Amino acid sequence: MKTEVINLSNVWAKYNQKDSILEDINLTIYERDFVGLIGPNGGGKTTLFKVLLGLMKPYQGTVKILGHTVSKGRRYIGYVPQLVELDREFPVRVADVVRMGRLGKRRLLQRYNSKDEIIVNRTLEQVGMLELRDRPIAELSGGQRQRVYIARALASEPRILLLDEPTASVDPQRQTSIYELLKELNQLITIVMISHDIGAISAYVKTVGCLNHRLFFHGNPPLSTEAIEQTYQCPVDLIAHGVPHRVLSNHDCPLHYHE
Ligand SMILES: Nc1ncnc2c1ncn2[C@@H]1O[C@H](COP(=O)(O)OP(=O)(O)OP(=O)(O)O)[C@@H](O)[C@H]1O
């Protein structure tokens, strides 16, 4: 039987006294699933990650990570946040960034040891960046930096990898290789990825979740146009990887366009 790695049951969450951002979310993710989470801007995808990472507590419902509460289970999660613009003077090398992923494994003020170095090198090799381990991070391209941040998340030896828009700042030619890397990593690890790239979602993931405050659809690709339209609540153009596709901008729907 497949192991349940994430289970959300009747989860409701909101910021302050505002409207609920997550409404009655029921979601089970199994070991070595590769889940793509899509939905319109503001639909609550990042909020769902915050709940899984213990950064936000639902006001109703339960969340289990490998059968544990979030406070115990979050140590099994590696998180790759959205890539932000980097200060070009930032004086940190690739291996230093990956080593930071070992911090959660250290006691306060404990020094890094040889095991940390082995893991840093192993994860850099996994993401194809070992040769650049001593390069300043600021000299790398968006795609290379994203690989380093994936290595940093892997350095904590997680069972689950959460990625927020992993190809948003990666040029289109390199996006495919990031998805190929994730597909390879997925042989060992469960992956949940937020993306606006419906084409890539259809091509690479095993399961899709459509989130717009509620989870409108959770199942296998290919995604039906109806499922997407119900989530985005507006008409959607075609879905095919490598082919231009878009969510049409009429009604009040935010425009997403990828080529
Ligand atoms: N710290 C916060 N305090 C108050 N409201 C917030 C906070 N963070 C997010 N929100 C609001 O919660 C809603 C959901 O945001 P969230 O970032 O989860 O959406 P998302 O689906 O990830 O969107 P996007 O695709 O734009 O990243 C938005 O309306 C946002 O303005």
From TrEMBL:
Keyword match ATP-binding: yes
Domain of life: Bacteria
ABC transporter domain segment(s): 6-244
UniProt entry keywords in alphabetical sequence: ATP-binding, Nucleotide-binding, Transport
Coiled coil: none
InterPro entries registered for this protein in UniProt: AAA+_ATPase, ABC_transporter-like_ATP-bd, Metal_Ion_Import_ABC, P-loop_NTPase
Name of a matching Pfam family: ABC_tran
Keyword Transmembrane on entry: no
Record-linked SUPFAM superfamilies: P-loop containing nucleoside triphosphate hydrolases (SSF52540)
PROSITE patterns: ABC_TRANSPORTER_2
GO molecular function, a single term: ATP hydrolysis activity
Family (UniProt): Belongs to the ABC transporter superfamily.
PANTHER family, A to Z: METAL TRANSPORT SYSTEM ATP-BINDING PROTEIN TM_0124-RELATED
Name under which the protein is recorded: ABC transporter
Classification lineage: Bacteria, Bacillati, Cyanobacteriota, Cyanophyceae, Oscillatoriophycideae
